[in-house]
Automatic annotation (TrEMBL):
It catalyses: (R)-malate + NAD(+) = pyruvate + CO2 + NADH. InterPro entries: ICDH/IPMDH (IPR050501), IsoCit/isopropylmalate_DH_CS (IPR019818), IsoPropMal-DH-like_dom (IPR024084), TTC_DH (IPR011829). The keyword NAD applies. PROSITE patterns: IDH_IMDH. Transmembrane segments: none annotated. Residues 5-348 form the Isopropylmalate dehydrogenase-like domain. It comes from the Bacteria. It comes from Enterobacter huaxiensis. It is an enzyme of class 1 (oxidoreductase). This is D-malate dehydrogenase (decarboxylating).
Length: 355
């Protein structure tokens, strides 16, 4: 019997709704598998914690998380707290403090879900976006001077290091190598950004030589939006910088039907620290408390967590249950259904028990 210690951080908005659903599903899955157990500890960190303590998580937060096998994260963001405080106070310190440099975002059209692309069916769009998660445009490097004066200046400096770029390229090529098509697209903007991005391209070409069996090509990020929309079937694994992949993966989520189904994994490939698994979406103020949040992204990221823990069978069982439930049309309103979070969760649990 394997016992996995999971740190749940549901945080804000619909975060608690979808993470509670995910935890319920994980327990049902463990029961069905018979050889594993999840010990889930829930941390009440986030914007409410901030309002009473002045910080999003305690100072020794990372220390408390270190002992866990994985982190299961909801969303941060509250209407009455500035977004840069919530993001830099909780999610980014975990990603950066635990050097979760590979952000892995699978996207595909699930059965029963309608893509806004007229010709797309399940299979047309089956991608994994690998996002550099430790530096680039979100390195936090920059500053403000002469605040409030007419000559005020703000800088936001993108940082690209040889170490950072090499390790994300290796991760992406290795991942592409494990997928049937062995196809990688490197996203860049080296026409306009002629320093860091040119180095990015050079390192991609160097790393490519280590993977002769992987076909790869290069796309400028603006042209990439066109290719994703018009020729989704021409893409498989994609690697991009922190900013580029942030934007492209929202597009990917939308093309696959809804942000509510898009998962993401923040991985420390060297396994020095726990990795963190979360839905891509945020707090979704407009539907918080209504009980209609789509839990599929949270289930899918739980499957990513299981894969990372080496529980490939359990991950596959969870994903087939999710796909079966979508195919039956038991879906939340964001993807055209009439079911609520509870009903989708119960249906997935049933499918796990019967599958
Ligand atoms: P959002 O992802 O919260 O919502 C965008 C739209 O998608 C909304 O209409 C929402 O109802 C819908 N949506 C999102 N997830 C859904 C789900 N599971 N089921 C059904 N519909 C869903 O993005 P928005 O509105 O830009 O940001 C709201 C707050 O969340 C902000 O404070 C923002 O900073 C934060 N945020 C946090 C993220 C994180 O914690 N990783 C990621 C994105 C935003
Ligand atoms: Mg984003």
């Amino acid at each position: 019997m394997k016992d996995y210690a999971i740190a749940a951080i549901p945080a804000d908005g619909i975060g608690p709704e979808v993470i509670n659903a995910g935890v319920e599903v994980l327990h049902a899955l463990a029961e069905r598998q018979g050889n594993m157990r999840f010990s889930v500890h829930t941390f009440e960190w986030g914007s409410d914690y901030y309002k009473s303590h002045g910080v999003m998580m305690p100072e020794d937060g990372l220390e408390q998380l270190k002992a866990f096998d994985a982190i299961y994260f909801g969303a941060v963001g509250a209407p009455d707290v500035p977004d840069h405080i919530t993001l830099w106070g909780l999610r980014l310190p975990i990603c950066q403090g635990f050097d979760q440099y590979a952000n892995v975002r699978p996207t595909k059209i699930l059965p029963g879900i309608q893509s806004p692309l007229r010709k797309a069916v399940p299979g047309t769009l089956d991608w994994v976006i690998v996002r550099e998660n430790s530096e680039g445009e979100y390195s936090g490097n920059g500053g403000r001077a002469h605040r409030g004066l007419p000559e005020e200046v703000g800088t936001e400096v993108a940082i690209f290091t040889r170490t950072g770029v090499t390790r994300i390229m290796r991760y992406a090529f290795r991942l592409a190598q494990t997928r049937p098509r062995k196809l990688l697209t490197v996203v860049t903007k080296s026409n306009a950004q002629r320093h860091g991005m040119v180095m990015w391209d050079e390192i991609a070409a160097e790393v490519a030589r280590e993977f002769p069996d992987v076909r790869w090509d290069k796309m400028l990020v603006d042209a990439m939006t066109v290719r994703m929309t018009l020729h989704p079937e021409s893409l498989d694994t994609i690697v991009a910088t922190n900013l580029h992949a942030d934007i492209l993966s929202d597009l990917a989520g939308a093309l696959a039907g809804s942000l509510g189904v898009a998962p993401t994994a923040n991985i420390d490939p060297e396994r020095r620290f726990p990795s963190m698994f979360e839905p891509i979406h945020g707090s979704a103020f407009d539907i918080t408390g209504k009980g209609i949040a789509n839990p599929v992204a949270s289930f899918w990221t739980a499957a990513q967590m299981l894969e990372h823990l080496g529980e490939v069978d359990a991950a596959a069982r969870l994903m087939s249950a999710v796909e079966a439930v979508c195919a039956q049309g038991i879906m939340t309103p964001d993807v055209g259904g009439t079911a609520n979070t509870r009903e989708v969760t119960q249906a997935v649990i049933r499918a796990i028990r019967e599958g």
